[in-house]
Amino acid sequence: MAGAIVACRACPRLVAHREETARVKRRQFCVEDYWGRALPGFGDAQARLLVVGLAPAAHGGNRTGRMFTGDQSGDWLMRAMHGAGFASLTTSERRDDGLRLKDAYITAAARCAPPDNRPTVAELERCRPYLVRERALLGRVRVIVALGQIAFATVLATERARGVELPRPRPRFGHGAETTIGSIVLLSSYHPSRQNTQTGRLPASMLAAIFERARTLVE
Q: What pLDDT does residue 93 have?
């Protein structure tokens, strides 16, 4: 499936943006070869924890070729996951940095870097079947951590597409909220974006607590 994701060109706006970003580059990365394609998820195929983010960062995953890699959000996420025993390193710098996820798999609602980090509803819908297929392949998942409201909504839509009945009333996003959906527990977290981490909305301790709770639940 990874090959199909990498080759995907279903969303013209996203394809144009990811390729233009890879061509123009950011000055600090001007000597690097950008990935500039859609990104598959990565991690442990036997994972009991699934982490769902928003989309690759234009100069993060779109540059490095791996989700949550090469930017501050990735480092915040890895520190929290490492603390709970889900990641071998506290940083996520490049595809060949030796990082290994243990009992965890990382993916996203959208697989291409969107302008202003805002994929459209139609783009998210076109991308969703990839997550449905990942859920089918990751048969041991017991906990899903949704990073942000869009990831949260995407997980709900994905579970519904898989034929799982959603709780009523419909679950609402909130940092630290837990929802049981079928055989899994959905944990909500603010996204470790700069907007959240640098303003103090998401301190490291709050993000760490999410993954400590995930560790308790998967065990």
A: 96
d(CA 200, CA 182): 34
184-189 vs 143-147, strand pairing mode: parallel
Distance of CA 111 to the CA centre of its chain: 9
In whole angstroms, give the CA distance from residue 145 to residue 148.
9
User: What distance in Å separates the CA atoms of residue 46 and residue 68, rounded to the nearest whole number?
Assistant: 20
Which structural domains are found in the chain, ordered by start? Answer: 2-218 (3.40.470.10)
Buried b (16+ CB within 10 A) or exposed e, 175-193: beeebebeebbbbbbbbbb
Tens digits of residue pLDDT in 138-161: 999 999 999 999 999 999 999 999
Answer positive or negative: Cα dihedral of 80, 82, 38, 33: positive
